[in-house]
Amino acid sequence: MRPACSEVGELETFLATRLARPLPGPAAQQRFAPVPFVDGWSPELEPETARRAAVLLLIYPGAGGPAIPLTLRHPNLARHGGQISLPGGAIDPGESAEAAALREAEEEIGIIAGDVRLLGPLSTLWIPMSNFVLSPFVAVTDTKPAFRLHPHEVAELVEVPLARLRDPGSIKWASRDRRGTPTRYPYFAINDHLVWGATGMVLSEFVSLFGADSTLLSESGG
What we know:
The protein is of the alpha+beta class. It has one domain: Nucleoside Triphosphate Pyrophosphohydrolase, CATH 3.90.79.10. The protein is built from five helices and eleven strands, in the order ααββββαββββαβββα. The strands form two sheets. Strands 1, 2, 3, 4, 5, 6, 7 and 8 form an eight-stranded mixed β-sheet that branches. A three-stranded antiparallel β-sheet has the order 9-10-11. A hairpin with a 2-residue loop joins strand 9 and strand 10.
């Protein structure tokens, strides 16, 4: 079993190369879209009226191998309260998407931006319900952050081993009524939480980067 920092180092090398190549894009994102979805929706669309947001998918050495942090949003938040999300938020005027992802992650979960190395972007994703175009960024850090949760925004930190995301057994389906229409949707079952919607779509594309190379996401790092 290799040290955790070695596992993250191998992932960094792999992902830096993989993210420089064409991304899986809409085909991977749509695997986690609700069925049926909004008429005319396609994840790569960028309406002129849409606002911009960015999120950070941060890989760090966890107890069970490389992991990423998700957040359970505070139930009192007006937008997506009580849902699981990647740390992130709206891009401020004049701010780059990369800077926004780091700033929001620092505010929400207390990471130190200077300790993080950005590897590259995943595909943008239009979220029609909130009319945001989301820009996700993959990053790594050599040590587990000393997480500090924003008391008014984050109710719980959800630490997710990457091996769990790659496990087909973590993907389930559920049903709900959406505006009077019965809707089925896939989700990642993580620590008794349902990770679905835009977050599920981002994670679906991320997992697709590995293709058949599941050894990079094994419990022990191979």
